[in-house]
Design goal:
heterodimer, A: about 475 residues, mainly alpha, 17 helices, about 70% helix, disordered N terminus, disordered C terminus, B: about 180 residues, alpha+beta, Alpha-Beta Plaits, four-stranded antiparallel beta sheet, elongated
Chain lengths: ~475, ~180
């Protein structure tokens, strides 16, 4: 028996050449956007406009326009904050952790996933800033800057302050990592523009590419930079959601005061992030005809990560329930009894269904390789993850220690409006990115083309190889 | 004639052929100016004889600066300038300062290293770069040889060597 190929399935299909890669990816930057793009942009901008109106009212009137009351002082704002930060985590996992693990399939999806990270972190950051009521003072109050009070410094013992440092560092480092990756691809677009005679575009992309030339020495340094940025981003991404979870875990509220939170939040973040990457990429690959770059195989691998992280989240839920009973702490026990049985049980069971049961469907190969099923489930997972944060935050708060304070939370138009604002921003930013930036990392794809293309798999040398003999 | 003006460009289509060609030319005593590729070619830096990048050291030093600055800042602010007792806990203790210290270390390390990379690689958003072949960011791997530096090997010999090593074209490039 003859073994034909020990190599894995090709990552890039249809036998693409180097030129095809440049062409297929640069095409949408060079051509006019399609009608679909304009429709998407119109919807996103309407959401953004409505949300902007709600924010203006919020800033004018104060956060009393939200549905918060004295018992439930944190609700949609912090739910949305944690939800968006979590979504961002998949981008860093793909670009940093999978780079350290030498997972080549990440190369087709890392660019779009990192863009998603950056936009999601911006969306997340709007909520704490809005919650301050006077967001123009947000940076001044949250950072250790000298002031006229003494100087009265910020409290470095507070997890909320750790969050300021964690989120801003995460945003900055992700942005730098993403931009470093974009530089060679901007140069490709610049040089194509020079060949096509589009001088303005060439000048713009030359500035964006920092005059990239692609010399061997620069590539050597570039790879060194990418590897170290990945090494720095890996503990960074784990620290970010750990610190977000400490906003809750270091408090003494029943249902929050648990040591399980950091790993549980990190797994949940990656879970929701991969779901959002899938939602975005399934649309992007279709609209931009990138089916040969983002193949069913890529989607299947992402679905497998969803099974793994979804199962970790499921185990965390069950552990929480068990410990609430086993610890014998009656406040903790009541908090969980109330989650399962109380007035917010509908939210708890929505969370359980969406996060624990639905990802288990991906054990079936037919479902995890189906585009429609993946798309639907990716949205279901993100609904579930939103409910997870809502359940943790609101159910723990709405039953206060004194029963006379017990209440419910009802969102107002402004709670909803600000959430819609972030959706508007996120999709507007993503559409602009998809139009003006290369959505797939061309340089990295080119580097694996020979080793993993469908031609390379069968050992057929490319035409030039003949000259070697 | 002044150096760094007249170049011979060997255009290659395949990374393995290119790496092989670099080795052949270097053993024949040809000095290679630089090789421009659309993607990172592994092993190319070794055959060109480049020493390992010292950027990791820069990253480490920037990170160390971040650690020290963050610790100094927190101990000074919380313990010396305005000691605050919160919840009866010591006003300057190491454990609660670790998250901010870690984040600041990562921030300075990443930004410092990237800035160093940009400076040493002469990358800037203004000005026109000196481009040897615009196809080198698309699908061609281009080896640039400075003719005036290679006094021992003639221009025709280099051309022939490049052709024999598998170059699909050999072009001349003269910068004003």
């Amino acid at each position: 028996m003859q073994v034909t190929s020990a190599v894995r399935d090709p990552l890039i299909t249809s036998g693409k050449t180097l030129k095809d890669v440049s062409h297929d990816v640069s095409r949408q930057v060079e051509n006019k956007p399609t009608g679909l793009w304009y429709i998407g942009m119109a919807i996103s901008l309407s959401l953004l406009a409505f949300g902007f109106y709600c924010i203006c009212v919020l800033l004018w009137e104060g956060i009393g326009v939200w549905g918060l009351n004295k018992t439930v002082g944190w609700a949609w704002d912090i739910t949305n904050f944690v939800w968006w930060v979590g979504i961002g985590h998949a981008g860093t996992l793909i670009s940093a952790i999978l780079l350290l693990f030498r997972q080549r399939w990440r190369m087709s999806i890392n660019r779009a996933a990192e863009a998603m990270t950056i936009f999601a972190v911006i969306c997340a950051a709007t909520f704490p800033l809005m919650h301050m009521g006077r967001l123009w003072l947000g940076f001044y109050w949250a950072l250790p800057l000298p002031n006229t009070y003494g100087s009265l410094w910020v409290n470095f013992n507070s997890p909320l302050l750790w969050d300021v440092f964690a989120i801003s560092t995460y945003f900055t480092v992700s942005l730098v990592f993403w931009y470093i990756g974009l530089i060679p691809d901007f140069a490709t677009i610049r040089d194509r523009a020079i060949v096509q005679g589009a001088n303005t575009r060439a000048a713009i992309y030359n500035a964006l590419s920092f005059g990239w030339q692609g010399g061997a020495k620069t590539w050597m340094r570039y790879e060194s930079v990418a590897l170290i940025l990945a090494g720095l981003s890996t503990p960074l991404v784990l620290s970010v959601h750990t610190i977000v979870s400490m906003d809750f875990a270091t408090s003494v509220i029943p249902g929050w005061h648990t040591t399980i939170f950091p790993p549980y939040f990190v797994a949940g973040a990656i879970f929701s992030g991969f779901a959002m990457v899938l939602t975005l990429l399934l649309v992007t690959r279709k609209v931009f005809k990138l089916e040969d770059y983002i193949t069913i195989y890529h989607i299947e691998l992402m679905n497998i990560i969803i099974i793994v992280t979804g199962s970790i989240v499921g185990i965390a839920y069950i552990t929480e329930l068990f410990i609430a009973w086993y610890s014998g702490v009656e406040y903790e026990g009541y908090a969980f009894y109330n989650r399962v049985q109380g007035p917010y049980a509908w939210a708890y069971w929505s969370m359980m269904t969406c996060n624990v049961i639905s990802p288990q469907l991906f054990w079936i190969k037919k479902i995890r390789t189906s585009l429609v099923a993946t798309f639907v489930l990716s949205i279901v997972v993100n609904i579930g993850m939103w409910f997870e944060r809502f359940v943790i935050i609101v159910t723990s708060l709405h039953r206060d220690y004194v029963p006379s304070s017990w209440t419910m939370f009802h969102p107002t138009m402004y709670d909803i409006g600000e959430y819609l604002f972030t959706f508007g921003f996120f999709f507007t930013a993503f559409l602009l990115f998809a139009k003006f930036f290369p959505v797939v990392n061309m340089a990295e794809i080119k580097s694996i083309l020979k080793a993993t293309s469908s031609e390379g798999k069968h050992g057929t040398p490319r035409e030039v190889d003949k000259t070697r003999h | 004639m002044a150096a760094n003006k007249n170049f011979l460009l060997g255009v290659f289509e395949d990374e393995d052929v290119l790496v092989n060609a670099v080795q052949i030319l270097r053993t024949r005593g040809v000095k290679i100016h630089e090789v421009f590729t659309p993607f990172p070619v592994h092993g190319l830096d070794e055959v060109l004889g480049y020493t390992r990048s010292r950027l990791p050291i820069a990253a480490f030093l920037f990170g160390l600066t971040g650690t020290c600055l963050a610790l100094l800042m927190q101990f000074w602010m919380m313990g010396y300038d305005w000691p605050m007792i919160i919840g009866g806990k010591p006003h300057s203790a190491l454990p609660p300062f670790i998250p901010v210290t870690f984040e600041f270390t990562v921030l300075l390390s990443a930004l410092g290293m990237v800035a160093t990379f940009m400076i040493v690689s002469d990358m800037k958003p203004y000005g026109k770069p000196r481009q040897f072949d615009v196809r080198s960011t698309d699908d061609k791997l281009v080896m640039a040889i400075d003719v005036d530096v290679n006094r021992t090997v003639s221009r025709t010999a280099i051309t022939q060597l490049l052709k024999d090593a598998g170059a699909s074209e050999v072009n001349e490039k003269v910068f004003p």
